[in-house]
Write a structure and sequence with these properties.
The structure is a single chain. The protein has 282 residues and is α/β, with parallel strands linked by helices. It has two domains: 2-175, Rossmann fold (3-Layer(aba) Sandwich); 188-280, Pantoate-beta-alanine ligase, C-terminal domain (Pantoate--beta-alanine Ligase, Chain: A,domain 2, 2-Layer Sandwich), CATH 3.30.1300. It is built from eleven helices and nine strands. The chain has helices at residues 7-19, 35-47, 65-70, 75-85, 96-100, 118-122, 126-141, 153-165, 195-200, 203-214, 220-232, and strands at residues 2-4, 24-29, 50-55, 90-92, 145-149, 171-175, 237-246, 262-270, 273-280. The strands form two sheets. The chain has a six-stranded parallel β-sheet, sandwiched between helices. Helix 7 (126-141) crosses helix 8 (153-165). The longest helix is centred in the middle third of the chain and has 16 residues, at 126-141. The chain binds adenosine monophosphate (AMP). Residues 29-30, 36-37, 40, 148-149, 151-152, 175, 177-178, 185-188 line the site of adenosine monophosphate.
């Protein structure tokens, strides 16, 4: 298994691959890998001749410095997990300096308003950080295809916009949300949940499923109110936002219309740990 830390070293390898016209599948992650990440890696392996997995906790996308400090880092285990999937996988695990150079800072992007909705509202600067790191990584890795989870559905839409803005040739592929049997969406942050939080957190997906079931018959206002009520007497989970939004532009709605696709989005705190999830409604 090849593990690169230096931009120049992986660039040399990538130049060789390009000479051989190999297709490159790229899976950017922040590590603390779980089966959701591995599902992305499997899909990349099935569609490309070479797969590069990036492991880098990107400082510019954290708006909360404690979250950055506490973000789980498990590089050795991550590398073992990946080598069990395939010893052919290439891992890139750079330092911030290798990615950004001396100035670790974000570019300011205009993602056509996508960046101002939901996560953008609650995590100022987050999507500038995501856009900037991916611009750098796509430049280094020159992937044919890059794989992103629908778990971060807003991020996926923003990355599609990023490659248009930056005129990059990479094809962005969305992958379904991978869940525990309990329904809880897998997340690296789940590692920070205590027993009580872990046993309560499946409520998030239960609520999303109920909203999906009721979406045809109940109004958006009724559903919004019902979701808030589910958290009112819960002393483990605190609702940050729940929104029903158009899939196309992620703008939240008050009333639904015919022939338009909608999704429900939710962010919840379990203590200090922030969990997000979403579901297609129609
Ligand atoms: P992260 O390491 O959290 O930045 O995630 C790296 C990639 O894995 C992103 O594209 C995420 O959307 C994706 N991902 C994380 N959790 C899941 C999941 N439960 N199911 C599918 N994709 C996921």
């Amino acid at each position: 298994m090849r593990v690169y830390e230096k931009r120049l070293d992986i660039s040399k390898h990538v130049a060789d691959l390009q000479k051989q016209n190999k297709t490159i599948g790229f899976v950017p992650t922040m590590g603390a890998l779980h089966r959701g990440h591995l599902a992305l890696v499997q899909k990349a392996l099935s569609e490309n001749q070479v797969v590069i997995v990036n492991i880098f906790v990107n400082p510019t996308q954290f708006n909360n410095s404690e979250d950055l400090v506490n973000y789980p880092r498990t590089l050795e285990t991550d590398i073992k997990l990946l080598s069990n999937v395939s010893s052919e996988i290439i891992v890139f695990t750079p330092s911030a300096k290798e990615v950004y150079g001396a100035q670790v800072e974000s570019i300011t992007y205009d993602f056509k308003g996508l960046e101002r909705e939901m996560e953008g509202k609650y995590r100022p600067g987050h999507f500038d950080g995501v856009g900037t790191v991916l611009k750098h990584l796509f430049t280094i890795v020159t992937p044919t295809r890059a794989y992103f989870g629908e778990k971060d559905f807003q991020q996926l839409q923003i990355v599609k916009q990023l490659v248009v803005i930056e005129k990059m040739a990479v094809k962005i592929i969305g992958c379904p949300i991978y869940r525990e049997e309990s329904g809880l969406a897998l997340s690296s942050r789940n590692k920070r949940l205590n027993q009580k939080q872990l046993s309560e957190s499946p409520l998030i997906y239960k609520i999303l499923k109920q909203v999906k079931e009721d979406f045809g018959t109940k109004s958006v206002t009724t559903l919004n109110k019902w979701v808030s009520e589910q958290f009112e007497n819960n002393d483990t989970l605190e609702l940050e936002y729940f929104e029903i939004a158009k899939t196309s532009n992620l703008k939240s709605i008050k009333r639904k219309q015919e022939n338009i696709k909608y999704r429900a989005f939710i962010a919840v705190f379990a203590g200090e740990v922030r969990l997000i999830d979403n579901i297609a409604l129609n």
